[in-house]
Amino acid sequence: MIEAITGRYMRLELEGRAHRLYFEEAGQGIPLLLLHTAGSDGRQWRGLLNDAEVTSRFRCVTFDMPWHGKSSPPEGWELETYQLTTARYTGMIMAVARALGLDRPVVMGCSIGGRIVLDVAAEHPDDIRGVIGLQSAAFLSPYYDTSWLHHPHVHGGEVCGGIVSGLIGPHAPDQSRWETLWHYMQGGPGVFRGDLHFYKGEGDLRPKLARIDTKRCPVHMLTGNYDYSCKPEDTEATAAAIPGAKVQIMKGLGHFPMSEDYAALRPYLLPVLAEFT
Amino acid sequence: MNVTALPARAAATPGLARWGRDLTADVLFSVGEAAWILSIHKGVLISATPAPAIMPRYDLAIRTGAEDFALFLQDPPPPGWHDIMGLVRLGAFKVEGNVALFMAHIFWFKGVLALLREPRA
Question: What are phi and psi of A101, to 5 degrees?
Fold first, then answer.
């Protein structure tokens, strides 16, 4: 059986530097741009991209961020420490949308992706149709020393997988649980930690929430109750600061709902997608 | 919770030793006032014995509270108490000493402590 997903590369300039990015897509219709979690890649969306009920109405596109998955870091990467920032992240999302000709896409992201869609909603409300944040909160405090994620005494792949393994809900199927962790184990050295620079520090979006106008840009937030990184109360506190934001707490799911158990995410997600026409 | 039975249960768990293939250490494991020394050689849990009250020797200490760990041991555990790092997030699990040993073998530690959950009858 051959899946309907296709993968290609694009060349584009980000912050004045040439990049080669990998992206996958499936379906036709309303553009739906999908953002993976920190330290992982677009394979997390394999369940959705294979869901005919979604791809019959949406052109679903996911890209691997620079440094992630099959996307290369820019020339000169060996001389620098990778760090994701709010401006860099939003800039690449809008650049990818333009490069692929996505007309006012719905932007859906998880974790760091669930965070950055709030910035996209605040900064570019007229360029998008709406946002969906999975495991989304405007700010989270660090609760462990992230320097261990990039340390010569600790295997980077195993620690990155191990540190996030408990964020998966206890009822997730073993196959998708361990595939989700495999993606983490394949991350480049220091990349997960570099993403957490945004997630646990620089990317505090609380001051921007009041600027989000849900009449111009609807905001949906879905959070699994087994996520102890972005807890349900973190999502609810964020939503409370965005008048009109809609929240669902998803029972049994963890931090990677689209990858750990797409079948369990689906009943929550499809009614949200149905609101976009 | 039967900590002294842990070596046999760990030995019967496929794949666990592989996650600790380079882990050789004595680990102090304390739950509330109780404490054990876990002696590990290349990922095999050799013994789990009550820690001496005086001058225990160990390379790494992992400490948790009795109430929080009781929730961790439930099947299924409540959200937030279902994983060691969840307990860390709650401030209910401390890793002290040679932390690199814990981080380098985090799958082993998570796996062996989850074995303390009693299977449903």
Answer: 65, 35
